[in-house]
Amino acid sequence: MNQGSKRTVALAAIVIGIVAMVYALFLDITGSESSIRGAILIIGAVLAIFGAYWMPTRKHRMIINVLFLLPLVFTFLVTVIIPFLLGIFYSMTDWNGVKFENFVGLGNYISMFKNQDYLYSFVITFIFTVVNMIAVNVVAFALALLCTSKVKGRNFYRAAFFLPNLIGGIVLGYVWQFIFNQVLTSIFKGSLSMLSDPNLALVCILIVSTWQYAGYIMMIYVTGLQGVPKDILEASSVDGANAMTTLVKIKMPMIANTFTVCIFLTLVNSFKQFDVNLALTNGAPSRILGGKMVKATEFLALNIYNTAIGKNQYALGQTKAVVFFIILAIVSLTQVSISKKKEVEM
Description:
mainly alpha
């Protein structure tokens, strides 16, 4: 087969493949009950890949490299990018989880910001994120200093402090619920459970979240502290620097990138807190706000879940999820940008 024929066959395969994939996505968006959507999508992808591979060109090597990356890129598109774009579309409809009948534009977004429950959830999620981020990093860094010191049994301490992170959030929430409701009330006779108070219930979630996640962040700090060159520490000791001066003036500036990573991880984890929130309080107890009853500990992720799954308002839940993603992305990128600038200054 000559070059012209190969090019024609390759182009035809690429065009047919792209058309097939677009058609399969169209069937999905319109809620078609056709059972061949998946087959059409796969066949289209295979044809497009075959066409790109068969295409005679001087940049054939680059095409091969791209094709090797394609499975990962395709998976990312199918599981992240396409669902996100579809989510934006569904947020502008009256989608019921299966199909939609009307296009409502920004109606769901306007309704969402008029919802007092959502606004309250946003505020307490922001407060929880800030406090939890500080608490986890302070505790984790203190534990890391302990585990990198000359204390006996430091390897045992590392394993013990990291162990809570291996427990699933749902199990952890129910275990601590038992502790707060049964154990502590038995020890302190006549006292009420902390989970029955709107303010203390939020503190309970902070305690559990810090207890669970500090060990994981500690291991990252341990790695950073162990990476500080020993000759620099020895030189500071010879110059008469005490432990506090060495920590503040040498160790902390040299692990600035570690702080960036840890703060980013704790910020994202805190902002999208769900499993512990669901198992420990499920949003309870309630409090009166502006003459209306709201759930005192219902964070944004749980609020989205309850809206979509609990109240069957899938379009509104999807709208909240889209805004949730945008806010999280902005906050995360801003934090990383600020931390990177601090790294340069340090």
